[in-house]
Write a structure and sequence with these properties.
single chain; alpha/beta; Rossmann fold; 7-stranded mixed β-sheet; 20% strand
Length: 236
């Protein structure tokens, strides 16, 4: 059952996120108590974009791309890519409502349709673990980033504090999946996939090692909200 639940083949990921697209924003903010918005703002402060362009992989409904658009002093070219067309439709609607000029493109993060050394900053938030081959996803992020540019990965992680970790694990495994499934009616059990995918994905120094192997230098990581999420930053 676990192996089936963690099936990350492209077609399954595309279908699963397409199904939950109507509920995606509401559930993200509701289940995280809106803390996810703070994490994205922190990312824009820690990894600012000056001249651009900026690429946001696995952009989903465009939250990080829009946060960057709202945080830049002067307009820069921002591109968001995602495997799921249904997510991108909602990203485009949100961008239009915010009068934000962002290019949203349907693309596989393992095979990005951009030349080498294109982007000043390349980001991914809560999406690296959903890529079929995350090593290839990281390699592509590095490939399309300019020399001297930054790669930022914002991802869920596992709190190290024993008490908090126990509370978090209970909520993540028992409460969140039931609420998410009840509202989204996902046939692919998307909100059971979420905690399962987080618990089996590397975090902390282990993910730093992955990023260094992909060719990044001076990789740092900063736990957020007691380690519920972590921001990783590396330089090409």
């Amino acid at each position: 059952m676990t192996q089936e639940l963690l099936d990350k083949r492209e077609e399954r990921i595309r279908r699963m996120f397409g199904e939950i697209a109507p509920w995606y924003d509401f559930l993200n903010h509701f289940l995280s108590l809106n803390i996810d918005k703070r994490w994205r703002r922190k990312t824009t402060r820690r990894v600012p974009v000056k001249e651009g362009p900026l690429l946001d992989l696995c952009t989903g409904t465009g939250d990080l791309a829009l946060t960057y658009r709202n945080s830049t002093v002067k307009p820069v070219h921002i591109v968001g890519t995602d495997l799921c067309a249904e997510m991108l439709v909602r990203a485009q609607v949100k961008a239009a409502k915010n009068r934000a000029n962002i290019d949203f493109i349907e693309a596989d993060s393992q095979h990005l349709p951009f030349p080498d050394n294109t982007f000043e900053v390349t980001t991914v938030s809560f999406g690296l673990r959903n890529i079929t081959d995350p090593h290839q996803g990281l390699a592509e992020m590095v490939r399309v980033t300019k020399p001297g540019g930054k790669v930022a990965v914002l991802e869920f992680s596992k709190p190290r504090n024993r008490l908090l970790g126990g509370i978090y694990s209970f909520y993540f495994r028992r409460i969140l999946p039931k609420i998410g499934q009840w509202l989204s009616k996902s046939r692919d059990n998307a909100y059971s996939y979420l905690p399962a995918s987080v618990l089996q994905f590397p975090d902390g120094k282990d993910l730093v090692a992955w990023m260094e192997k992909a060719g990044l230098k001076s990789v740092t990581f900063e736990p957020l909200t007691f380690g519920v999420a972590t921001l990783y930053i590396g330089q090409k």
